[in-house]
Amino acid sequence: MNAPGTEADLHRRITDFALRTLALPQETPLQLTPIAKGGSDRMFYRLSCRIECEYQVAPMEMGGEYSVIVMHYNPGNREDTLYAEIADFLLELKIAAPTILAHDSKDCLVVMEDLGTEDLWSYRNEKWITRRGFYVRTLMHANRLHRYFQDDGGVQPPRMMNGYDMSLYRWERQYFREEFVGPVCGISLSREEEDALEEEGAALARRLMLSGEGLIHRDLQSQNIMIHELAPVLIDFQGMRKGSPFYDLGSLLYDPYVSLTFDERLELLGFYYILSPRDIPWEEFATLFYEGSAQRLMQALGAYGFLGLQKGKAAFLAHIPNGLRNLQDATSRASALPHLRDLATRCLAVLKL
Prior knowledge:
By secondary structure, the protein is α+β, with helices and mostly antiparallel strands. It folds into 2 domains: 7-113, Phosphorylase Kinase, domain 1 (2-Layer Sandwich), CATH 3.30.200; 120-350, Aminoglycoside phosphotransferase (APH), C-terminal lobe (Aminoglycoside 3'-phosphotransferase, Chain: A, domain 2, Alpha-Beta Complex), CATH 3.90.1200. It contains 12 helices and 9 strands. A 5-stranded antiparallel sheet has the order 1-2-3-5-4, sandwiched between helices. Strands 6-9 form a two-stranded antiparallel sheet. A two-stranded antiparallel ribbon has the order 7-8. Strand 1 and strand 2 (43-50) form a beta hairpin. It is globular and about 65 Å long. The chain starts with 6 loop residues before the first helix and ends with a helix. The relative contact order is 0.11.
């Protein structure tokens, strides 16, 4: 008997739940492989088995191999408790997401479709003609989500986190300063500098609040887009909420994990502009994109600092150079963000990037 709360006990509970979900006999041999995934406290496992019997009722072929992904989450993190419900919602909207096979809210376990190991990030070195297709289809999914309030078609919204408001935008700005500017860059801002940045950031938040509300993924970057059967599928959408679509566009097109050229980024932004016609001139649309990108990059850099220094996940620190360069680039194209642009430039100089 495994002691409650131990890793062995968790593995036993995962195995038992998966066997029940897949309607497999208790004696079925299963292989449980941990999957290292991102910066969250969730634990992911790939559970695989070989089908040798004829009486299986699970959707598998005899003599073949079958696998699922099992997620174990902390019930204290409300976002994670919403994952399964949001996945079902996205699929109902015809947005590609993993199929949820079972959810045990008491044991905090989710069994879902295995989408394989390739994500959009793994294609980062492929030719643009290949990557472009994945980005275009991802933008089509994102647009469907962003237009939910116009095109919901009767699909009821799931429970989700509170939407973006002035306080959440303010929290992201503070997160950036407290977890990145100080700890990573070693910069101590004067009261006057903080006041100027806060005034500029509050004005940015007001513009984003007026830029058109949709449902957004909130972490729409290349490692959260699986490529399954040569098609993009969204994952890690538990943070979905009401917000500005320009935040999602910044997440994807100014993704620090993947380098896009100016022309590639502009081509994709132009595609989205045509895909989602708005009563707004292109120049204003592009400016809002750069501003939404700046807001997103502040959050991302704050997260890299927090995860890298506070949580000991040093791999996130490697993404700071690209993230900071992206922030400088986005702010240099948004004339209303001179203080943030100057701070990004100062951070680059201090870090000698």
